[in-house]
Amino acid sequence: MPPAQTEKHVNDNNRPLIMVVDDETKIRRLIATNLERSGFDVMSAADGLLAVEIFMKSSPRPDLILLDVMMPGMDGLECAAKIRDIDAVPIIFITAKSDGTTKLRGFDLGADDYVTKPFSIEELIARIRAVLRRSQAAAKPDEPETQIENGPLTLRLDARTFVANGHEVHLTATEFGLLEILMRRPGAIFSHEELLHKVWGAGKTSEVQYLRVAFTKLRRKFEEAGLEGGIISAYSSHGYVLRDMREDALEYL
């Protein structure tokens, strides 16, 4: 096994550890070099099977995995499924495939982001930092949560109020429930069934028209608050996604 495929650099500065999984040596080295310059430690693997093996043996385990989709042997989707059986580590897919079906499969497996080749290193690092920040925030369950923020959007959980672009917006209980789900994971796609089950209950999971009506009203309220369109989008007849509007996050859907 070539040393470059399993080498792991860890120092005492508590730098985030990123695993880079890609069968192209030049891409692995390019990403690793730039990540290390940007304050990350890096470990790598040349295919999905090796990545699973390294992940299971690593201590500490990586804080995030950059995972190519198209690889010989075990591809990235299968690799992600096996890792998800072990740990909830954040995963960002990197691939030349930009079709909606592949994206949906990735998100269904619990992917946190999806970057299409070719990409800029600056974009990749911004996405890594955004995903790590979300992951770290979710790992603090003992801290009382009073509000959720996404750029100009603030959902105040304690007061059950919503502020968009500095304006308080009146929401119905249904609209508040839907927006809370989307605000907790901006950029993630939530299926029709999941949204209907969580907000309307198990007996309403086929009532897609409920979502169409509710999101039409939410979009109108955003526009009345001075926000541009496209903040909430329907995705390929599968579900809905709220755009990640935080400072260093990039729109990718």
From TrEMBL:
**Cellular component terms (Gene Ontology):** cytosol; protein-DNA complex
Question: What protein is this chain from?
Answer: Response regulator receiver domain protein
Alphabetized CDD domains for the sequence: trans_reg_C
In this UniProt entry, the residues modified to 4-aspartylphosphate are D68
Q: What is the top-level taxon of the source organism?
A: Bacteria
The record's section on InterPro entries has: CheY-like_superfamily, OmpR/PhoB-type_DNA-bd, Sig_transdc_resp-reg_receiver, WalR-like, WH-like_DNA-bd_sf
Show where the Response regulatory domain sits: 17-132
Q: Which UniProt keywords apply?
A: DNA-binding, Phosphoprotein, Transcription, Transcription regulation, Two-component regulatory system
Q: Name one GO molecular function term.
A: phosphorelay response regulator activity
**DNA-binding residues per UniProt?**
145-244
Gene3D superfamilies from the UniProt entry: 3.40.50.2300, 6.10.250.690, Winged helix-like DNA-binding domain superfamily/Winged helix DNA-binding domain (1.10.10.10)
Q: Name one GO biological process term.
A: regulation of DNA-templated transcription
Task: Domain (OmpR/PhoB-type): give its ranges.
Answer: 145-244
**Which species is listed as the source?**
Sutterella parvirubra YIT 11816
